[in-house]
Amino acid sequence: MNINETNYENYFLLYIDKELSAAENAAVENFVVAYPAFAAELDQLKKTIQAPENIIFENKALLYRLPAMEASLSSDFKNKLYKKPARLLSIPLNNKTRAAILSVAALFILLIGYQFINTNAVSSINTIVSTSTQPNGQNLSRSKAPFEKKNAPAINVVTSAPKKIYYSLKLKENLAPPKSALASITMEQTSNLMAASMPMTKEATSIQASDLPSNEITQAPNEIATSTNSKATSNIFPTTYQVVDTDEEDRSIFIANLEIDAAALRGITRRFNALFKRNKSENK
Amino acid sequence: MKEIEFNQCVDEYANSVYRFILKNIAHVEDAQDIVQTAFEKLWVNRNKVEPLKAKSYLFTVAYHQMIDHIRKEKKVTITPNYEEAGAKATYQKDPELKQVLLAAINELNPTQKSLVLLKDYEGYTYQEIGEIMNLSESQVKVYLHRARIFLKEKLVHLEKVGS
User: What Rg, from alpha-carbon coordinates, does chain A have?
Assistant: First the structure.
């Protein structure tokens, strides 16, 4: 190793950084002794060494990992150290709110069940009534096109166009006046029409009906509200068919002695049902 | 590394890491936060870190935390108030020299300051400093020597002004 005037600074720097071997250190010290002119420079470099300061980290208790020490930490601080998970919507549940949520859920279940039972009940009534009043199996087919309103006692088809409709057939004397019918059709069905125990085409029905003196039947040519069975006979008195919008019915729900107007909740139950139907179709 | 060894690390290294960070950023609360984060990471990775490497690991984590902090703050305000908070020179008896040196060090960029502190306070070798600061050994050597010469010139200037 040869320390000279050109490379001494590098050696001095390595010397004060303690990066030299023992032999090299000795060489630097010998060089300074041999050339006192460079001693001042080495001293100046030595002065750049930072004196270690006695700085104390006061809160070591925050760092220790002992159960007791960990317990002494504030939960705020501990939470700060962890990555925060995604925040979930948390609803503080006390007994009251829990009871309220459960009761609402129970109400929904009851509404669904009610509607399910109600639908089945109406359709079964429909079947029973139609068979009892129409022993000959005369069927009423629902027409989608608008009909002109008729006044004559006849078949009443009360429809509420955009809504789901449940049909029931009743005798005229049992007929409740339709309230919010958007379209209705009445058609007098006379005994001779009924007695015409022959297969009738749509046109034939239309012609025969129009021939009746007290009848004002207007039927759109592309549609037929009724189709007569070939065996439609023996029903002498005028029969009235009514399609009842069961939305108009009293749909109160009784929970214990608490009465709830289901009509007010109709929209909710529909959406709820629609949701399930949608899910079903998605599952398919 | 178990709890006992970890707590030994706290006893042995917390002050050093804190001093290193505090000298760099001169902000007590932030320095404490960085130290806490470093020890927290050591705890999380206690099974991966060898006990003998724990000190280097702590300095490495703390250094990079500090760099992130400096970038985030975009400013390093020098508040020498912490000097009175217990800082005590051990062998630099000349208070004027000490003040000048302190001022000169604060003129260094963060990398150079860290290099000087790791070398002088902790006695790390160039290689160890390079591992902590993610620099090559020759980079450490060059940057550190530049810093030394800068500090020396500051001191020489002071002596000339004083005399």
Answer: 48
The number of distinct structural domains making up chain B is 2
Q: What is the pLDDT of residue A247?
A: 54
CB A273 within 8 A of CB A188: no
CATH of the domain at B24: 1.10.1740
If one counts every other C-beta atom within 10 angstroms of the C-beta of residue A27, the result is 17
Q: What is the mean pLDDT of chain A?
A: 65
What is the reported pLDDT for B75? Answer: 56
Are both B21 and B76 inside the same structural domain?
yes
Torsion of CA A171, A176, A182, A184, to 10 degrees: 30
Mean pLDDT of A84-108: 82
B101 shares its domain with B70: no
Q: Which residue has the higher pLDDT, A79 or A264?
A: A79
| Residue span of the structural domain in which B65 resides | 1-86
Inter-chain touch B152–A62, beta carbons under 8 Å? no
Q: Is B126 on the interface with A (CB under 8 A)?
A: yes
Angle at B29 between CA B26 and CA B32, to 5 degrees: 95
Handedness of CA B102, B103, B106, B107 (dihedral sign): negative
What are A257's two structure tokens? 């002695």
Angle between helix A8-16 and B137-162 (nearest 10) = 100
User: Both B81 and B93 in a single domain?
Assistant: no
Whether residue B128 is found in the same domain as residue B155: yes
Chain A residues whose C-beta sits inside 8 Å of any chain B C-beta = 9-10, 13, 16-19, 41, 44-45, 47-57, 59-60, 62-66, 81
Burial (0-12, 13-18, 19+ Cβ within 10 Å), A208? middle
